[in-house]
Write a structure and sequence with these properties.
The protein is α+β, with helices and mostly antiparallel strands. The chain contains three helices and three strands, in the order βββααα.
Length: 98
């Protein structure tokens, strides 16, 4: 999972043609993406914050998944195992695209 730009990422709102929020790598000239929205700046900024959190969220998922898998195996209640498998499948799909 090393093909993406390493975090941390940050986001900031700015006015361009319409409002936009940009996700960038602090201390570098690199922008990850721009989120544009002319009517709902709050939604635009929330989307940018979520995208900016992606590296940390991915790292947290990778760290917690083995524990969650063990817990689900020991406590097969409800859809614990299915939820863990969905997370594993999502990581596998991400790795397959890199």
């Amino acid at each position: 999972m090393s093909a993406h730009t390493k975090g941390p990422w940050a986001s900031a709102a700015r006015e361009y043609d319409d409002w936009e929020s940009v996700v960038y790598v602090p201390g570098t000239p690199y922008e990850i993406c721009q989120c544009f929205h002319s009517e709902n700046i709050d939604e635009c900024e929330a989307n940018a914050r979520l995208i900016a959190a992606a590296p940390e969220l991915l790292e947290a998922l990778v760290l917690v998944l083995p524990m969650a898998k063990g817990y689900a195996a020991e406590h097969p209640v409800g859809n614990n195992e299915a939820m863990v498998q969905e997370a594993i499948d999502a990581l596998d799909a991400l790795e397959a695209k890199q």
